[in-house]
Amino acid sequence: MAAGWETVVGLEVHVELATDTKLFSAAPSRFGDEPNTNVTPVCLGLPGSLPVLNRRAVELAMAVGLALNCDIRPSVFHRKNYFYPDMPKDYQVSQYDQPICSDGWLDVPGGSRIGIERAHLEEDAGKTTHLGGADGRIHGAVGALVDYNRAGTPLLEIVSRPDIDSAAEASAYVEELRAILLALGASDARLEEGSMRVDANISVRPAGSDELRTRCEVKNLNSLRSLRNAIDYEAQRHIELYAAGEAPVQETRHWSEDGRTHSLRSKEEADDYRYFPEPDLVPLVPDDEWIAQVRAAMPELPASQRARLHECGAGAEDAQVIVGRGLAPVVLGAVAAGADARRTVTHAVQNLALDGAELLDPDGLASLVHLETSGQLTATQAKTVLVEMCARAVAAVRAAPAEADGPSGSASAGARAFDPAAIAAELGFEAMADDELEALVDQAIADNPEAWAKFCAGEAKVAGVFVGAVMKATRGQADGQAVTQILVQRRNA
Amino acid sequence: MKGASLIAHDVRTGARRATDVLQDFLSRVEAHDGDVHAFNTVTAEQARAAAAAIDAAVDEGRDPGLLAGVPVAFKDNLCTRGVATTCSSRMLEGWQPPYDATVVQAMTAAGAVMIGKTNLDEFAMGSSTEHSAFGPTRNPYDLTRVPGGSSGGSAAAVAAGFAPLALGSDTGGSIRQPASLCGIVGIKPTYGRVSRYGLVAFASSFDQIGPFATDVADAALALGVISGHDPADSTSIPAAVPDYTSALDRGVEGLRVGIVSELAVASAEGQAARARSGGCHPAAGTSWGDGGNTPSGYDISAEAAWLRDGFDPEVVERLYGAADALAAAGATVDHVSVPAVAYGLTAYYLIAPAEASSNLARYDGTRYGLRVEGADVTEMNRLTRRAGFGDEVKARIMLGTFALSAGYYDAYYGKAQRVRMLTRRDFDAAYADFDVLLSPTSPCVAFRFGERADPMTMYRCDTCTIPSNLSGDPAMSVPFGTGAEGLPVGVQVMAPALGEETMLTVAAALERAAPPLSKPLLAGVAGSTGAQT
């Protein structure tokens, strides 16, 4: 950032809400299926079809709004009219001047508070693939195929105020927002896969001023890295324009991985969307009782999770990692169930960057940590069991997708499959008898007389030779610490 | 009992076979629809199978339902699974919906037998059925005249005896006006009373499906079948459906009937005629008061001054005849002013095209219906829409697009919505003092083809019917004698929201008092239905 200037950023974040069905139809809201199979007459905009609002989508929107300290207000859906082949009705149903959530804020870890202008519901469009052009892009294409499976998927657009003053803060805002969405189960919020899409409105102003200068909206930000780089690039571009006596024009720009933004279209060419209230839907007026129900059902939010993890001894960075992975309920639950806090945090940070980790039963994790701290499993064995627990949790959810509450909610007959002691037994992990281990250590000493002499002479690092030998003999099942203890005993004997 | 009610009774009791009933009607269609052109599609084969299934049900001792074996014609903007649903547009020629409209399901479930799909003004935009891409429908009373519109095909089908029942849709009068011009009964229910799911949208906030029948009893029977909450239509009203047929014999004693002053103005020529005949126009001194709002006393601003031109004298005369009949039957009758109706036409012709411009955007050649290939997708859209839509549809799309455009929204669409609120307010005020309101249905009797080629002249056909679409309240047309050249005249009965029962009570009383209507020119046909007792 050039001296004398400050960056001003507002973010528009679209997230796909994690509903079973679409915003206005009963078609599955699911990806990866055969094109144009998850469609109803409503999704295809067939003549005579009518939208029916998805109650679950509204509840998720309200929960996000409440988590962002917004007012939940009566809202109205509008039609945004423009022609595009992947929009089946050639209008998008969206909330316009009366969004369901407005006037909130989000506290970014580290201190700053970012205003939330609004969060509103809208439907997604289908997906167009251009034929004959390079990489499915429109340039040089000879035709196009449209898949309407995504058409009508519920989106929540969360619009911040222009309160963000750096690339780092923008990145932190998105991370915190993502953590909130994950905690609420409102979205899987994956930037790379497009279930979370970030557009940045970027401008600059003289440091200390509170004016808002011409902004550019930058799209195609598919990672936090892109977001940060695009903000830095665009701010610098504005500063250089001002320095040259010019000014940026208000326009939409495309971030490309060559590290630059490119002009897409200017404000003057903008479409007239002819917004008007969607006559096929009635105003959405959540009453106090409904709002209270949604609020009561909300889980603990990341800020509070981090505070409690900190009390468990997790450092700020570890707490952030755990919350970011959506593991706070599992970790805090395991600690509450009596597991050693430090060991539990260590597992979560080091061993649980895994699919299904968030599905772990906290009691199961607590049992596992207990098996380890009581010496019944080695650290290595514990990690192996943990991986297996996650894999089984994922498999269980896939086998019963209708049971949204995860493996802990499945029939008790299946519960044993997630019990770490049972898994350890299945894997053949049993605590080794002391005399058995001692015999193996003695064998290792006998096999490596030179190393033993060095060890006795005080070269502690050669202990690795013996530990390695015992590990080899036990195929990694031995406890390395125990081996070292025996070595010390033998030397001192 | 006659008409559909009698057919259903006879079929349910085994006195007649549904297949025989159907054959009678199919024979009349075959003999005369070449002249009338009520149908876009006649579904004879499918109907025979459906009628046979009804007969089989009766044979097995099962009850096929309230409309057992009653042939029904559906306006061709109601989706019918596997049967072409064209909206009388090149755009949807041959398009077969993969689903049935909720009303089609309801009628079929009640034992009705679909006999065909009826002609309409393209996408229901018009008041004469002249704007059909497949040629006009002719009025069975006079083949040189229009049947009204946009549900002209459904109205003509019932009037010609092609079907005892038909369904249409009413956005600005498209059921009531053709019912009036064809001498039959037509109902526009309360907005939300009947599901719109499967009705191809014209103007969503006005569109409402309703029945055509030869008498009030049949219309009430059909209304009961198609009414009710539908979770697939968010604007559908979750209210229980009363037994409408039980409202028919309640009598009008003590009911308060208001004549809408603004809509009771005969042209100057008509008033002169009335004075000569000593008619009971309030200006000539009547048995009821003027409610402080004589037609000459209300204030119509310059924009709506055309209302002063008034209506066909015979039409207004029949209105007062109807009022006399209700008074004679024990109702109290008075005039009432509903000032906002003077602005109804203007407001409607902004809001309806605005919604239509959005509703009809989807006909872009991408997914279904007509496609005209172009160099790119934009050109394909443009060429498809140019070729697929008729002039009236294009005019309304352009009008609506303009009304919604940035910078014009407040002046046009926004202002029209305020008129709509005023209309509701004025009607609410009127219903504080009156149970039902009366007006003509149409300012005129059936006119000749091409006679109203000027759009404004055509749009004025909807003057009396549009206010109920703006307010969302129920209204119906019931025949009450004839006007110029012996052509049918209808009287409109309006009621507050969900006031269908009272509306039907009054309509039934009018029907009992109505001067006899001559048979249509196809009288030999209608008289041979065998369905009349």
Explain this structure:
The complex is a heterodimer of chains A (493) and B (533). Chain A has 16 helices and 14 strands. Chain A is of the alpha+beta class and 493 residues long. In chain A, the strands form three sheets. In chain A, strands 2-5-6-9-1-10-11-12-13 form a nine-stranded mixed β-sheet, covered by helices on one side. In chain A, strands 4-3-14 form a three-stranded antiparallel β-sheet, with no helix packed on it. The longest helix of chain A has 21 residues, at 379-399. Chain B has 533 residues and is an alpha/beta fold. Chain B has a domain at 3-250 and 519-527: Amidase signature (AS) domain (Amidase signature (AS) enzymes, Alpha-Beta Complex), CATH 3.90.1300. Chain B is 38% helix and 11% strand. Chain B contains 17 helices and eleven strands. Chain B has helices at residues 3-12, 18-36, 44-59, 102-109, 152-159, 176-181, 216-226, 268-277, 313-328, 344-359, 377-388, 391-404, 410-433, 455-459, 466-471, 500-513, 523-527; strands spanning 39-42, 71-75, 113-118, 165-170, 185-188, 208-213, 256-260, 332-336, 436-440, 475-482, 488-494. Chain B has an eleven-stranded mixed β-sheet, with helices on both faces. In chain B, strand 2, helix 4 and strand 3 form a beta-alpha-beta unit. The radius of gyration of chain B is 22 Å and the shape is globular. The interface between A and B is large, with 29 and 44 residues.
